[in-house]
Design a protein that fits this description.
The protein has about 160 residues and is an alpha+beta fold. Helices cover about 40% and strands about 25% of the residues. The chain has five helices and eight strands; from the N terminus they run βαααββββαββαβ. The strands form two sheets. It has a four-stranded antiparallel sheet, with no helix packed on it. A four-stranded mixed sheet has the order 7-6-5-8. A hairpin with a 3-residue loop joins strand 3 and strand 4. Helix 2 runs antiparallel to helix 3. The two termini are about 25 Å apart. The model has no long low-confidence stretch (mean pLDDT about 85).
Length: about 160
């Protein structure tokens, strides 16, 4: 299975932001762009959408040009160079994801963003974001067996420096 950033994944990750943009224009049009509703609506738009835009840019840069191939016994990561990681060389896979993605309804746009961090036995870390696949956590669980999976609840799943 070959996974990479696609236009569809970008749209799916931004679905909340797109709906907020449409709702903002409808509200502003309804109130005929009066000053007070404009300030309130644009303030809510910025609070809801701006953090998601930051995450989207970080995720897009992180996995730009990355291609992940899930094979029977290993994961092939193609970025600038080709790297093969055997499943038995993986120490753990950590999923950084908002709790609302599994047990509720995401309230803010940034809660739709999550990533999987693959930690090898040599302590190398590889991050695969939701822009590569919207179901990266489920795909890794179904393809990689015998590896410790950890789920970390993090509403703002920013990829920190290693």
């Amino acid at each position: 299975m070959i996974l990479k950033q696609t236009f569809r994944n970008h749209i799916l990750a931004n679905q909340f932001n797109i709906l907020m943009l449409i709702a903002t224009f409808i509200i502003l049009w309804y109130f005929q762009f009066a000053m007070v509703p404009v300030i309130i609506t644009l303030g809510m738009f910025i609070l809801c959408v701006f953090p998601a835009v930051i995450l989207h840019i970080i995720y897009a840069i992180k996995n730009q040009g990355m291609e992940v191939i899930l094979e029977a016994n290993d994961i092939v990561i193609k970025n600038r160079d080709k790297e093969m990681i055997a499943y038995n060389d993986i120490e753990s896979i950590i999923i950084y994801k908002s709790a609302n993605m599994d047990n509720g309804i995401p309230i803010m746009g940034f809660e739709y963003y999550y990533f999987a961090r693959i930690v090898t036995k040599q302590q190398k870390q590889i991050d695969i974001t939701c822009l590569v696949s919207r179901n990266i956590d489920k795909l890794l669980k179904s393809h990689v067996s015998g590896v410790f999976f950890e789920r970390r609840h993090n509403p703002f799943a920013i990829i920190a420096a290693k």
